[in-house]
């Protein structure tokens, strides 16, 4: 399975600022996803990062707030824009291979964001 | 993708088998049953998945009923390190979006 490096692992940010989270995979993958996990909650899918085109966002998430890039098959970024304390969460990236039904999905270790 | 129902929490004694149930009565066609777990402060970890037959790997066994409407994840000899939230997810089939959608999962507490 793929190995994911997600950076930063944690950050404390001022409200109104933006933070960009990076997800680097050690092999080419077909699909990349970004999730949010609010304190004490399950994971919520934010968007699918599409290589070379605009990300596909889930209901309740918009590009202006969570711009996503995926310039190639091994790298993606998620930006949390104009942050407020409600954005304090763990943000995780996940990847799948073409043979997802054999190997399952791999998750990064997450970015723990605190907005003050 | 079909919806799943899991008990919110379960306890298990260390060294005993942990049996985690999942109901997926609306599962259809070629949808797979996946199990992931999330140990505190870590990203989710893939455990096992299956379609129709029972499956076993080094981590766990997956028992799927004949009608495929429910399944059970079995950790044969639970240890304290198996304390985690376990997620049962149904995905795939003809309308496969490739998206993994998490429910609330079962919090398994392994006790000494």
Which helices and strands, and how do they pair?
The complex is a heterodimer of chains A (116) and B (112).
Chain A: E1 4-7, E2 10-13, E3 19-25, E4 31-37, E5 43-49, E6 56-57, E7 68-72, E8 75-80, E9 89-96, H1 100-103, E10 105-107, E11 111-115
Parallel strand pairs in A: 2-11
Antiparallel strand pairs in A: 1-3, 3-8, 4-5, 4-9, 5-6, 7-8, 9-10, 9-11
Chain B: E1 9-13, E2 18-23, E3 31-38, E4 45-50, E5 55-56, E6 61-64, E7 70-75, E8 84-92, E9 106-111
Parallel strand pairs in B: 1-9
Antiparallel strand pairs in B: 2-7, 3-4, 3-8, 5-6, 6-7, 8-9
Which key features would you list for this structure?
heterodimer, A: 116 residues, globular, B: 112 residues, mainly beta, 9 strands
Characterization of this structure:
Chain A contains one helix and eleven strands. By secondary structure, chain A is mainly β. In chain A, strands 2, 4, 5, 6, 9, 10 and 11 form a seven-stranded mixed beta sheet that branches. Chain A has a four-stranded antiparallel beta sheet with strand order 1-3-8-7, with no helix packed on it. The longest helix of chain A has 4 residues, at 100-103. The model of chain A has no long low-confidence stretch (mean pLDDT 93). By secondary structure, chain B is mainly beta. Chains A and B meet through strand 4, strand 5, strand 9, helix 1 and strand 10 of A and strand 3, strand 4 and strand 8 of B.
* Unreliable runs of chain A: none
Strand order of the largest sheet of chain B: 1-9-8-3-4
Task: Report, as a whole number of angstroms, the end-to-end distance of chain A.
Answer: 37 Å
Total beta strands of chain A: 11
Task: Give a summary of the structure in a few sentences.
Chain A is built from one helix and eleven strands, in the order E-E-E-E-E-E-E-E-E-H-E-E. Chain A has 116 residues and is mainly beta.
